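Lecture 7, part 2: worked example. A protein chain together with pyridoxal-5'-phosphate.
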Amino acid sequence: MAYINDNYQKLPGSYLFSEIARRVAAFQSKNPSVKIIRLGIGDVTQPLPKVCIDAMKHAVDEMASAKTFRGYGPEQGYDFLRDKIAEYNYKRRGLNVEADEIFISDGSKCDCGNIQEIFGLNNKIAIADPVYPVYLDTNVMAGRTGDLKTDGHFEDVVYLPCTSDNDFSPSIPAEHVDLIYLCSPNNPTGTTLSKDALKKWVDYAKANDSIIFYDSAYAAYITEDGVPKSIYEIDGARDCAIEFRSFSKTAGFTGTRCGYVVIPRELTGVNKNGERVPLKNLWLRRQTTKFNGTAYIVQRGAEAIYSDEGQAQVKELISYYMDNAKIIREGLSEVGLQVYGGVNAPYIWLKTPNEMKSWDFFDKLLNEVNIVGTPGAGFGPCGEGYFRLTSFGNRENTVEAMKRIKSNLNI
Ligand SMILES: *Cc1c(COP(=O)(O)O)cnc(C)c1O
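Predicted complex, written out as structure tokens:
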């Protein structure tokens, strides 16, 4: 007999996107001629920057000759990419991160999900509510959360509510936690953590000997000055924080796959004998055993954004989405909806009108203006009463969606 990992059965199931698909399909079959606009997507839609395409074509040609062919690469990534990341994203911004503290991967979802493996099951974790589901679900699978309670929370997790009451900036917990997941700019709320807020978390982590997992997948979408792009902008963060970044939203790599994690050399955890062990070494051991590196061709494509031309093309790509975000923000505000986010992130988080439930607002938007978004409640109990729209659609649909909301949404 093969016993399963029972922790998997504690997961409530990916109800959110399948339920959205079910409701949309039911509506479309009753209204076959209606053109539905999808603003629920969390995936980019515009093509890769030309610099990336050119670099990858060149890398493919290298594979055609024995002299330049590449087989297995270093599991932690090629130096050409690690060096460029260290220079462009950290050193040029006055931050101290070395190339050998950067581990290239096939994306941030995997890194955010796998990182918990190098930590013991006895750690107490803190997670925002609402949240990107990967942080929580991977801890459930590992057996670190206890069982699901009727209020939608797991019994052993410390939840950090993020609502308009605290400007979506989670408060420091009253109790001790060991591992803390923070995401800024945030998916799903589209809001960011200020330097002051981050400083409080870094101070807490240092005082409590905790580790912060800082997901900054959307750092490139920050448009306002003074909003931290990296947690290492905060003094002391090298002693307590691991940072996750990705080329997915920055350069349209969601289908191409490349991300990285930064683990400073001074970061340690404690073993059963009370001795300090560098986390960087554990992660390298994990990756060399379980991961075979990101494709050479893809790493060359990623490297290409680190040039003047590459940076300009990435900027243009992000501006396209952020102009959409502005159109959505302004459109929703004009009809009197309360909106958050969308200034430093491609997500707009809106308060549903008249205290409507998230799913009721989903149906209303679908029925009255034929627009699909994502119910906030799907990201955690504190997302109830909120709704997420994304700026990843094309311009024409985004403009048309706001036109429909202004003329036909009945609020
Ligand atoms: C999209 C996203 C990522 C990046 O995922 P990849 O695996 O790199 O494509 C990470 N964190 C959040 C919150 C995201 O929304």
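Residues 107-109, 132, 183, 187, 215, 217, 246, 248-249, 254, 259 surround pyridoxal-5'-phosphate (CB under 6 Å). Residues 309 and 361 are 43 Å apart (CA to CA). Keep this in mind for problem set question 3.
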